[in-house]
Write a structure and sequence with these properties.
Mean pLDDT: 97
Number of domains: 1
CATH class: Alpha Beta
Number of helices: 12
Number of strands: 8
Order of helices and strands: EEEHHEHEHEHHHHHEHEHH
Distance between the termini: 27 Å
CATH topology: Rossmann fold
Shape: globular
Strand order of the largest sheet: 1-2-4-3-5-6-7-8
CATH superfamily: Alpha/Beta hydrolase fold, catalytic domain
Strand content: 15-25%
């Protein structure tokens, strides 16, 4: 299906796209900071997943093809991010989706859980998820975020390139890297500052999850350390932990065959 726009309660337009089998079990993918729904191409374009599952992707507010409100107040409250997810779920007619959240999406999922609860989710797959504000759980590549927030274009580009390189232990092709850098650069410096400057969150909503949880993490991640995954697995009762020894921050891209097989098994369990 072609992309379509969903209007969140505060008036922000969120761009959504649907893939796969309309009658299949539902999977909602949520991307990370400065990324886009295109991050999930190796999932939504996989013939095996497309034959079995109904997959929905969208661009977070301020990212990709979604609207870019420029005020800090358009990013601070948990409810805004939570309502964006709820609006996508409602507009796409998702009944009880499995949610796959990469990196900053861990924070977005927490926003949703705090505001709307977890009853609508059939399961959650945290992928190198940002699920705590504890600085000890973040890696050395976080230093690139400073440059990414700069209004100086050369500094911003250099920081964005370095951050994107740090997302991968197995580097993408030059064509793929150029595409990724292009959608990273679509997020203005001011919005990057607003997103990263949000008030700190808490983990109590995640601790109370009753749905199945799969925690996926690349051991070589220099942005969010593997200790974050261990923290999530220890916090969520019954969570299953899956480490990718040779992958970095993006195991779904670096090892899509394994990731897609594990995701299918998780959804079909």
């Amino acid at each position: 299906m072609p992309p379509f726009a969903v209007t969140s309660p505060d008036g922000t337009a969120i761009t959504v796209e649907e893939w796969g089998n309309p009658a299949g079990r539902e999977i909602l993918f949520i991307h990370g900071f400065c990324q886009s729904r295109l991050s999930w191409r190796r999932q939504v374009e996989d013939a095996g997943l497309a034959a079995r599952f109904r997959m929905v992707t969208f661009d977070l507010r301020g990212h990709g093809a979604s609207a870019r409100p420029m005020t800090k107040e358009s990013y601070d409250p948990d409810r805004l991010w939570a309502d964006d997810v709820a609006a996508v779920v409602a507009a796409a007619g998702l009944r009880r989706p499995f949610v796959v959240g990469w990196s900053y999406a861990g924070r977005v999922i927490a926003d949703y859980l705090r505001v709307h609860g977890g009853d609508r989710f059939a399961g959650i797959n945290y992928v190198n998820g940002r699920c705590s504000a504890d600085s000890a759980l973040f890696g050395p590549a976080q230093r690139h975020l400073r440059g990414m927030q700069s209004d100086d274009l050369a500094t911003n580009i250099a920081g964005s390139r370095a951050f994107l390189r740090a997302c991968f232990a197995k580097q993408p092709t030059s064509d793929d890297f150029e595409t990724m850098l292009a959608f990273n650069m679509m997020v203005p410096a001011a919005i990057r500052r607003h997103v990263l400057g949000r008030p700190s969150d808490t983990t109590e909503a995640m601790a109370g999850l009753a749905c199945p949880v799969l925690v996926t993490h690349g051991r070589q991640d220099e942005i969010i350390l593997a200790t974050m995954a261990e923290f999530v697995a220890a916090t969520v009762k019954g969570a299953r932990l899956s480490f990718y020894e040779d992958c970095g921050h993006a195991p779904f891209w670096e090892d899509p065959a394994r990731f897609n097989a594990e995701l299918a098994a998780f959804v079909d369990r």
